[in-house]
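Query form — protein MaoC family dehydratase

QUESTION: What is the three-dimensional structure of this chain?
INPUT:
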Amino acid sequence: MTVDPAKVAVGDQLPALDLRVTRADLVRYAGASGDFNPIHWNDRTAVQVGLPGVIAHGMLTMALAGRLVTRWVGDPGAVRSYGVRFTRPVVVPDDDEGALLELTGKVAELRDSDTGGARIAKIDITARFDGKTVLGRATAEVALPD
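ANSWER: The structure tokens for MaoC family dehydratase are given below.
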């Protein structure tokens, strides 16, 4: 989906995005990132360190939340900045369904670019797992297409 920049207004909701995170996703992400910490694949280790079970990599959760914005704007290269705080883990069960990550966002601000050209939209992102927010202060700034 590519957004129509002429129709973007503060308060607009981005189309919601629900994604499933499975243990297979964690294995693939570990291979790509080199993060083989056993809290991301071993229940026993995760529980020993005080977690409720195996958790998704924080950066994977962040990347998946970013997909909400890139899908909306239509161009990953349009993202000017993106930041989050990790507030809760996404616990990924050892089953075929995985964990449901529910992503929503809204346009919080619109401004002209400092360098001219495209307008900049600040997007507030909400990421929930099991009904609770897992990312705090999740915001992205994107250049709207001309």
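ADDITIONAL NOTE: The CA atoms of residues 40 and 54 lie 5 Å apart.
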